[in-house]
C-alpha cells in the first residue's frame, strides 16, 4: 500500500501524504511522507499533521443527522417543507431521505437553486443536501455541529487533532493547487461545522472510522448509541434508483453490490462504507475484515480527468485484496 500511496502523490503532485490502517482495533500500518507544502522550510508530514479533509467532513455532519433521526427530531421520509420556515418551491417533493443520499434533484448555480430532476429518480453529488441538513439540525438542537460533536465525542475521547479551524497552526497541512501557486490555508472564519475547514490527523480520522466500526463503543464505554451509527452507515437511497448509481447512508457511500458509478471498488465486500474529499483524504471501513483504512493527500482535484472513478475505486480494492 505504501508504494501505491506514494506513487499517487507523485502523479498528482501532492506535497504530503499519510496512510493509516487499523485491523481488529489495532494500528497495523502508519506511514507519513512529504511536506505540509512546497514552500521552502515547510514542515515534514508527521503523526500530528492535520489535513483539511474537505468533503470527508460530511461523515461528521451525517452523524449529527443520524442523532436527529434517532432522537425523533427528523423523520427520514418526512417532506423538507415540514421542517423549514421558508417554503422554497425547489424543495417541493424533497424528503430528508433525498437530502441524505444526493437524490434530491436540486442543482445550484450562479442564480441560486433550481430543480435538476424529480426527487428520488436520479443521483447527483452536490452540497445542497448537506448544507440544508446541517443548518436544520443545528436549529433543532440549538447548538453548532462542532460543539455538538465536541461535547458528545471529541472531548470524551480526548481527541485534540480534530476540529474546524479558524486560525493557522504549525500542525495544519496546506492545500496545494498548482505547484507554482501559493498554497491555500483552508481556514474559514466560521467554526460552526458547516464550512470546509475541518482539519484532522490521519490517526484521528482512523479512530473516527473505528468508532463507527465498533458501533459507537470504545472499550467498555458506549460513546455513541449503536442505533445512531447504524442510521449513519445503512443504505437510505430510494430502492427504485438505477442499479448503476451509488447507494448512500448519511452521506457515506455504502456498498451492497458493485455499482458502476460508485466510488467504492468492486472487490470491497457488502456492508463496507467509504467517504472522501476533493484533496484526496479517504476513510474506508470494512466490517467483514474489521479494517479501517485512511489515506491523506493535500492536492485539490487529487483525482482529475474523465477516468477519476477508477482511481477512487483502486484504493478500496487494494485494501480489500490485501485482506483476502
CATH superfamily: DD-peptidase/beta-lactamase superfamily
The count of β-strands is: 13
Structural class: alpha+beta
Mean pLDDT metric: 96
Kindly state the percentage of residues in helix. 25-40%
Termini separation comes to: 14 Å
How many alpha or pi helices? Answer: 8
CATH topology title = Beta-lactamase
Q: Strand order of the main beta sheet, please?
A: 2-1-13-12-11-10
Radius of gyration: 19 Å
Structure write-up:
- With 324 residues, the chain is α+β, with helices and mostly antiparallel strands.
- The chain has a single domain, classed as DD-peptidase/beta-lactamase superfamily (Beta-lactamase).
- 28% of the residues lie in helices and 18% in strands.
- Helix 2 packs across helix 4 and helix 2 packs across helix 7.
Amino acid at each position: 500500500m505504501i508504494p501505491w500511496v506514494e506513487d499517487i502523490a507523485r502523479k498528482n503532485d501532492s506535497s504530503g501524504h499519510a496512510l493509516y490502517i487499523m485491523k481488529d482495533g489495532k494500528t497495523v500500518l502508519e506511514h507519513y511522507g512529504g511536506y505540509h507544502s512546497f514552500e521552502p522550510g515547510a514542515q515534514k508530514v508527521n503523526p500530528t499533521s492535520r489535513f483539511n479533509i474537505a468533503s470527508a467532513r460530511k461523515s461528521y455532519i451525517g452523524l449529527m443527522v443520524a442523532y436527529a433521526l434517532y432522537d425523533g427530531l427528523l423523520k427520514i421520509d418526512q417532506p423538507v417543507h415540514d421542517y423549514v420556515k421558508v417554503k422554497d418551491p425547489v424543495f417541493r417533493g424533497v424528503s430528508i431521505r433525498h437530502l441524505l443520499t444526493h437524490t434530491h434533484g436540486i442543482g445550484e448555480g450562479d442564480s441560486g437553486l433550481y430543480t435538476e430532476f424529480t426527487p428520488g429518480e436520479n443521483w447527483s453529488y452536490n452540497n445542497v443536501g448537506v448544507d440544508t441538513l446541517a443548518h436544520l439540525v443545528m436549529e433543532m438542537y440549538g447548538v453548532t455541529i462542532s460543539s455538538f460533536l465536541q461535547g458528545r465525542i471529541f472531548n470524551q475521547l480526548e481527541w485534540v487533532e480534530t476540529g474546524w479551524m479558524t486560525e493557522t497552526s504549525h500542525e495544519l497541512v496546506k492545500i496545494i493547487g498548482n505547484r507554482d501557486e501559493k498554497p491555500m490555508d483552508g481556514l474559514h472564519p466560521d467554526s460552526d461545522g458547516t464550512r470546509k475547514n475541518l482539519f484532522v490527523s490521519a490517526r484521528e480520522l482512523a479512530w473516527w472510522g473505528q468508532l463507527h466500526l465498533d458501533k459507537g463503543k470504545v472499550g467498555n464505554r458506549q460513546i455513541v448509541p449503536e442505533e445512531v451509527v447504524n442510521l449513519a452507515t445503512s443504505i437510505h437511497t430510494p430502492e427504485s434508483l438505477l442499479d448503476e448509481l451509488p447507494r448512500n447512508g448519511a452521506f457515506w457511500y455504502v456498498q451492497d453490490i458493485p455499482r458502476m458509478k460508485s466510488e467504492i471498488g468492486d472487490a470491497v465486500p457488502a456492508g463496507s462504507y467509504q467517504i472522501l474529499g476533493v484533496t484526496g483524504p479517504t476513510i474506508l471501513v470494512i466490517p467483514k475484515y474489521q479494517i479501517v483504512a485512511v489515506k491523506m493527500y493535500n492536492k485539490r482535484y487529487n483525482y482529475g480527468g474523465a477516468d477519476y472513478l477508477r482511481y477512487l475505486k483502486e484504493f478500496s480494492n487494494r485494501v480489500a485484496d490485501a485482506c483476502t
